Amino acid sequence: MLVLDAAQTRAALPWDGLVKALADMFARGCVMPVRHHHEVEVPGEADATLLLMPAWQPGDYIGVKMVSVFPGNQGRGLPAIHGSYLLSSGRTGELLAIVDGGELTARRTAAASALAARYLAREDASRLLMVGTGRLSTNVIEAHAVVRPIRHVTIWGRDPKKAEATARDLDLKGIEISVATDLASAAREADVISCATLSSEPLILGDWLKPGSHLDLIGAFKPTMRETDDRAVSRASIFVDTREGALSEGGDIVQPLRAGAITEEAIRADLFELARGKHTGRTSPDEITLFKSVGAALEDLAGAVLAFEAHRAKA
Length: 315
Prior knowledge:
Elements: E1 2-4, H1 6-12, H2 15-28, E2 36-40, E3 48-57, E4 61-69, E5 81-89, E6 95-100, H3 101-120, E7 127-131, H4 135-147, E8 152-156, H5 160-169, E9 176-179, H6 183-189, E10 192-195, E11 214-217, H7 230-235, E12 237-240, H8 243-248, H9 251-259, E13 267-270, H10 271-275, E14 289-292, H11 297-314
């Protein structure tokens, strides 16, 4: 049985290969039951979340990811997300690999946003604003830089020191990296805005979005959380990773729906429809596009299979 730690998982999931693997899996599809989503009480702190995400390709692979999200870890200097992925044979049930769940989650999440950006961001998008300084932020920046000609990256965080640390961690040749102190000004200049936070209140306002911009919302994975306001979703053409997930869990979609700011018909397409060519994505240079992801077990399965097969090929 193969066991991949975080470094090995990262090395086995290069951005170009991972984005392609996700595109292929969304185009083909797989069996993906509704994920288990449980609130876990942490005395004296915000509740944690336990996620169990199964998916399988009949006769090929079966996978399940167990992930915990502990918001209180930010104050301890620990990652908020921990997890493991178990990959088994779809023919015999034999356990084939245990993959580091945190690294797999970070990379497949960033790759899903990059895949969406291929359809939704302008082809000449060069300025990226990263809102958030957690584990996902560097992954998201790197992934977007693979699919679009990013030349300027601005990082904003509630704690400027963390934003500066994130900027130092990046090593992207030919890309100018800076830290923003004025979020509104940075947002108004950005071609692509990616948000990966645990915010419960809007951070990016719709009035800040310039024509032709693309808003990539990765955090707010609960109905009570959100990263943007009703104005943003009402101005934008909305796309999601999966309709079921976005309509039940994504606060940036659920809350505007409840408020009557949008209807379900406002969602133009999901990644299944984009990958299968049923929707072209962006339709004009000035169109404002919005992508909301809440994560899907399909993405984990695609990444775990890619990592397993890459190591098997080297053996």
